[in-house]
Every structure is written in structure tokens, then in C-alpha cells.
Write a structure and sequence with these properties.
The protein has 445 residues and is of the alpha/beta class. Helices cover 39% and strands 13% of the residues. Helix 5 packs parallel to helix 9 and helix 13 packs across helix 14.
Length: 445
């Protein structure tokens, strides 16, 4: 009996010593940052979601390696080779996307996943802390106008997300209830993402596209007092620069704006010469001549995508002449393709340029958006603007394929349009991984 008792005491002592050593090692490892404290992480993210004054720098319990996207790859391709323009790997990617269709999450996935925002943010690898002080000093306001493909919207959002920025997500009011619910659920997980109070029935070519951005602009001004620049996006856009690279380019603007603004040529004058109206969901020519608000030389052509300062946005809501022009444009065709371009050439508008043709800026010279127009594609040695599209076309615009990435990443633009995971999911996979890898270069725990 005494022998058994002695053996028990010996074994118990050994177990106790080993337990103490293990606890000591774990404690030291955690202090050195080798372990992730799950409970502390949850507290931090819950605080982040509930308090808009969350510190955006300092110690975080998420390893930078945990934010990499390589493990999410559906297609086994060599993205480095694709980005370098290697023909054989691009051809292989084209075969793979035909043979294996990627499975995309449906609306119910996001509605269910957002029941636990902590898990969503963690599993989807959102970067919830500012990576450096420079990005923190130039917060950006985004307007994102969408109507379908919630999975692609969420992918775009994750790629451009930073806690110091603010995001207005305008959902086309004609969208399905399931789509609206899924997008609202995603937005509800973040304090700096919101749906505007007023949603528009967006019709192609109508004023509603501009009004959607105006609704976001107005709320962005009211909700967030420190953002410096405004960028508008649609669901088929994707960044080709990291947030830090975007900040660098905004700094170089030094209070100026960057958007397409060129002298009007050809039949585009018809867009504002006559009155148009949405009838049965279509833009209809009303056969009524509009009274000109400016002379012809004061009107300029551009596109819907802009990079403008906060002062520019504040001005167009206050200046009588700008407000008059905005109101006059509401019954025109595709006003987004001349409104911003003309405001950019108006005297007195912050960051504007003189109306002389010497100050014209094409879409290739601005930084707002990289677009391949079908009629300008071809051999660049034979007076074509850019190489042939390797994806498909929608309304005469290239929907990029993996073979376009090498050319895309040589350009100075902040975003490119158009991408579609149903056309070429590998193009999005490789571009997304590339942007995340560059983003994490300066990341430390």
C-alpha cells in the first residue's frame, strides 16, 4: 500500500512539473507573438465592429501570413507566369476555366455567414488594421453602385477594404430581395460601410446612374468628416493598385482631380441637345430640343468614373452654377459621360482645369479607370491604342481575360473595368492574389 502511494506521488509530481513547463512555454510564446490569442482577437474585432473610434495602428493578434490568399486558389495555375505574359500558361488557364467551372457562393451563404461577423471577417481575411501611417492620413471615400453578383462585389470590397476608409454601397432598387438582403448583411458587419437611405432604379444611359453617386456623395460628406478623396466604382471594377499605391497617387494630385475630360467630337452633342426620358425601363428620345445652358465649347466629354477631392464634392452641392448644371442635365442621355467632364473644366471648381483643348485629358491619361474599347484594340504598332482583348466584350468594352493582366499591370490607373468571374475567373484569382501579396509586403504583426 505504501509502495503504491509513493508511485502515485512520483507520477503526480512528474505530471505537475510537465504541466508547469508547458504553461510557461505557451506563455512565453504568446508574448513573443508566436500564437494567436483567439479570445483576445474576438474582443478586438467586436470592438472594431461596435466602435468607430477603433485604433487603426498598434499591436494586432492576426499574423500577416494568415491574411494571404494563396490557399483560396480554386485553379491550379502559375499566376506569376500569367502576370508575366507567358503564352503557354495563359493558354493552359483558358483550358482550365472551360474544363472546371468555379463554384461561387450564393446569396444564402452571405446571409448565413454574416450571422457571425467575427467569423466572416476572419475567414474572409479582411485587413482590419491600417498597415502604415501614410495610408491612415489619407482616408478615401468610395461609392460602389451594384445590381448583381454579390460574390464579385464582396471580393472587390475585401480587396479595397481598409478601416480608415468609408464605403457607400448603392444597390439598384430593381435588384432582387435576396441580393439586397445579402449586401445589407455584409455591410452590417462593418462600421465604415453603409447603404444610402435613398436607392435609385438605375436604368442604363439615364440620370439615375449619376443620382446614385450623388446620393452616396451627400451621405459620405455627412457621415465622415476626414476623408480626402472620392472614387466611384461599379461591380465589375477591380483595383490594379494597392491601397498604399492609391494613396501615393492621390498625394501626387496635390488637391487636383483625375478624370477623362475632352473636347466633344461627333454625334455626342445629341446626348444633351435633346430631351430624353425613361419610359418602360428604356431611355426614350422625346423629340424636344433642350435650351442650351452653355455654349458648345463649354461642354466636355468623359465617362462615369472619377477621382476627385473632397473640396470638389462639397463645391458641386453648394455652388449655384454647378447646381444649375446638374439640374439641367437630368433629362439628357448618358449624363455621366459629360457631367463630371464638364464640371472639371468650370472656372472656380476645386482642382479644375482650364477649358482650352491643351488641358484635355483622355481616359488613358487619367488615373480613374482603365478600359479597353473594342474599336481601339489591335496591333499597337499599327496605330491601335492597346492589344486585343483576351476575354470577351460587353457593350463594346473588353471583359478582361488572364491574357490581359500583363498589359493591365503596366498601366498607371487605379482600377480596371471590366472583370467578370463567369467570363474568366482565373484573371480575377491571379489579380486578387497579386494585389494582396503587394499589400502585405510591409505588413508586420
Amino acid at each position: 500500500m505504501i509502495l503504491k502511494y509513493k508511485r502515485f506521488v512520483q507520477w503526480y509530481s512528474v505530471i505537475l512539473v510537465l504541466t508547469c513547463i508547458t504553461l510557461l512555454v505557451l506563455n512565453l510564446s504568446a508574448r513573443k507573438g508566436f500564437l494567436t490569442n483567439e479570445q483576445d482577437l474576438s474582443v478586438k474585432i467586436q470592438h472594431f465592429m461596435g466602435n468607430q473610434n477603433l485604433p487603426t495602428s498598434g499591436v494586432h493578434n492576426v499574423r500577416c501570413s494568415e491574411l494571404e490568399l494563396l490557399l483560396e486558389s480554386f485553379y491550379d495555375v502559375n499566376c506569376t507566369a500569367i502576370l508575366q505574359g507567358e503564352v503557354n500558361e495563359i493558354k493552359r488557364s483558358q483550358l482550365l476555366k472551360v474544363q472546371h467551372k468555379a463554384v461561387t457562393p450564393n446569396y444564402s451563404y452571405y446571409i448565413e455567414a454574416t450571422q457571425n461577423c467575427v467569423n466572416l471577417i476572419r475567414s474572409r481575411k479582411y485587413i482590419t488594421f491600417t498597415l502604415n501611417r501614410r495610408e491612415e492620413q489619407i482616408p478615401i471615400a468610395y461609392s460602389i453602385v451594384i445590381h448583381q453578383k454579390v460574390d464579385q462585389f464582396e471580393r472587390l470590397l475585401r480587396t479595397i477594404y481598409a478601416p480608415q476608409n468609408i464605403y457607400c454601397v448603392h444597390i439598384d432598387n430593381k435588384s432582387s430581395i435576396a441580393f439586397k438582403t445579402a449586401v445589407r448583411s455584409i455591410a452590417s458587419c462593418f462600421p465604415n460601410i453603409f447603404i444610402p437611405a435613398k436607392l435609385e432604379n438605375v436604368t442604363y444611359g439615364s440620370w439615375s446612374r449619376v443620382q446614385a453617386d450623388l446620393n452616396c456623395m451627400e451621405e459620405l460628406l455627412a457621415r465622415h468628416l476626414t476623408w480626402k478623396y472620392f472614387i466611384n466604382l461599379c461591380g465589375m471594377d477591380f483595383p490594379i493598385k494597392t491601397n498604399l499605391e492609391i494613396v501615393h497617387q492621390l498625394e501626387h494630385l496635390a488637391g487636383g482631380n483625375s478624370l477623362e475630360s475632352e473636347a466633344v467630337v461627333g454625334p455626342k452633342v445629341m446626348r444633351w441637345k435633346y430631351s430624353f426620358k425613361v419610359i418602360n425601363g428604356q431611355m426614350t428620345h422625346m423629340q424636344v430640343t433642350k435650351k442650351p445652358i452653355f455654349n458648345t465649347s463649354s461642354m466636355f466629354s468623359g465617362n462615369a468614373y472619377i477621382v476627385v477631392s473632397r473640396q470638389f464634392i462639397e463645391h458641386i452641392f453648394k455652388d449655384p452654377k454647378a447646381k444649375q448644371f446638374i439640374e439641367w442635365s437630368q433629362d439628357t442621355y448618358s449624363p455621366d459621360e459629360f457631367l463630371w467632364a464638364t464640371l472639371q473644366r468650370m472656372p472656380g471648381v476645386p482642382g479644375s482645369k482650364p477649358s482650352h483643348r491643351k488641358y484635355d485629358v483622355s481616359d488613358m491619361n487619367s488615373i480613374a479607370r482603365l478600359v479597353k474599347w473594342q474599336h481601339l484594340e489591335g496591333d499597337v504598332n499599327k496605330e491601335k491604342a492597346y492589344p486585343l482583348c483576351t476575354g470577351s466584350h460587353l457593350r463594346c468594352v473588353c471583359v478582361y481575360g488572364a491574357g490581359d493582366l500583363n498589359w493591365i499591370l503596366q498601366q498607371h490607373h487605379l482600377f480596371a473595368n471590366k472583370f467578370d468571374a463567369e467570363v474568366d475567373p482565373i484573371a480575377l484569382q491571379c489579380l486578387e492574389q497579386h494585389i494582396r501579396q503587394k499589400t502585405l509586403l510591409g505588413c508586420s504583426t
